[in-house]
Every structure is written in structure tokens, then in C-alpha cells.
Amino acid sequence: MERFYNKLSDVCGRTPRNDALILLGDFKAKIGKERSYKRVAGRHTLHDITSENGEKLVQLATAHNLEISSTKFQHSRIRKGTWKAPGQDK
């Protein structure tokens, strides 16, 4: 996972400052409600505590002046999570 974020950070770093940079994907990241992430993450999140992948995403967003937009806008609770099959633990 570390290698993925390092490569992604390199690509973000090569993007000209005047260009719009939008990252889309399933980062398997849970973004919590910690106040320290307020600059890049909003308060509309499903989780209370940020996962390890979430911390990496927050670090990437902080380093490249990005925002985690999925947490910035209010959605109904059912639209904030990903569906899992019954009995699926991860």
C-alpha cells in the first residue's frame, strides 16, 4: 500500500499547479471525525475513527492541497457506506 501512495504522490507532484487535479477511486479508506483532519476532510462521514488507509489518504490530500470531497457534503446515512454481502467481514 505504501508503494501505491508513493507513486500516486509522485504523479500528483508532477501535475502543474494551474491544472485541476481530481483523484477518483475506491481507496479502501475510512475517514473519521478527528478534528486534526478538518482541513482536508469534512464532517459528513460515516466513521468516527480514521483507518490506516484513511490516514494515508489524508496525508496525500494534505501534501498536495486536496480535499476529500466525499466527506464534505451531507448525504443520507445509507448512501455513505459500501454494501457488503452477508457473512463478508472485509
Question: Can you lay out the helices and strands and say which pair or pack?
Answer:
Layout lengths: L1 H13 L37 H12 L27
Helix pairs in contact: 1-2
**Strand percent estimate:** under 5%
- Count of structural domains: 1
Radius of gyration: 14 Å
* Strand-pairing-aware structural class: mainly alpha
- The topology string of helices and strands comes to HH
In DSSP terms, counting alpha (H) and pi (I) runs of 4 or more, how many helices?
2
What does this protein look like?
The chain has 90 residues and is mainly α. The protein has one domain. The protein contains two helices and no strands. The model has no long low-confidence stretch (mean pLDDT 87).
Question: What is the gist of this entry?
Answer:
It is built from two helices and no strands. It is mainly α and 90 residues long.
Features:
single chain; 2 helices; mainly alpha; 90 residues
